[in-house]
Amino acid sequence: MKNAYARLAAICALPLVFAACGDSTPAETDSASGPTPATTQHEGHWDSSGQPVSGGPTGADGSAGNDLSHDYCAHNQDPACPVGSYVGPHVTVNDNHGHWDASGQPSNGGPTGADGSTGNDLTQEYCAQNQDPGCPMGSYVGPDAIPDPDGSPHYVQCEGTVCTNPNHGADTGGYWDASGGAVLGGPTGADGSTGNDLSQDYCAENEDPACPMGSYQG
């Protein structure tokens, strides 16, 4: 009789054992198969000195990881640079960067070249007349290029007595002159807008999307 009671007690205890095992199994499974924390992605940008971080900002053509500096994009009309970053070779976006002065002479080494080089000390006239990678992209006009008769700080191709805009472009878009004034509507805004006629001083002091990217200084 005692053996019968013992067997009955053992049978009754089995569900409790299985239930206890069942309770612990899901916890272990959940722990093992839980979601893996997502890796934080850092969007490319420029640091305070204008150097690319995480590949630099996305280009106007949608490309990423171009590793182009702010001064390069400020002086070169390159689609791999972000929209609104080009301000023209007469403008400096950092005190350590070069540019052309009002007379087209290199200041602090001159603007950044199309090949990314700096400190080339090339004049605007030389770059307008020579296809040199040390000159900024879009600066070449032709071997007979002359200063624009309208007095604006860029060069045009002269054919006989009639001077026309060059096939290569040469700053035909808006930009800032050496004094920070808007020429041909001024540079393209960070929002892609054109013809805003905003001065460099205004853009340095105001966070306006119609100003070029990186122009705000605070």
SSE layout and pairing:
Layout: H1 2-33, E1 45-46, E2 52-53, H2 70-75, E3 99-100, E4 106-107, H3 124-129, E5 145-147, E6 155-159, E7 162-164, E8 175-176, E9 182-183, H4 200-205
Antiparallel strand pairs: 1-2, 3-4, 5-6, 6-7, 8-9
Structure, explained:
With 218 residues, the protein is α+β, with helices and mostly antiparallel strands. Among the domains are: 89 residues, no CATH class; 48 residues, no CATH class. The chain is built from 4 helices and 9 strands. The chain has a 3-stranded antiparallel β-sheet with strand order 5-6-7. Strands 1-2 form a two-stranded antiparallel ribbon. A hairpin with a 5-residue loop joins strand 8 and strand 9. The N and C termini lie far apart (94 Å). About 16% of the residues have low confidence. Keywords: Signal. This is Mesocentin. It comes from Hoyosella subflava (strain DSM 45089 / JCM 17490 / NBRC 109087 / DQS3-9A1) (Amycolicicoccus subflavus).
Put the structure in a nutshell.
By secondary structure, this protein is an alpha+beta fold. The protein is built from four helices and nine strands.
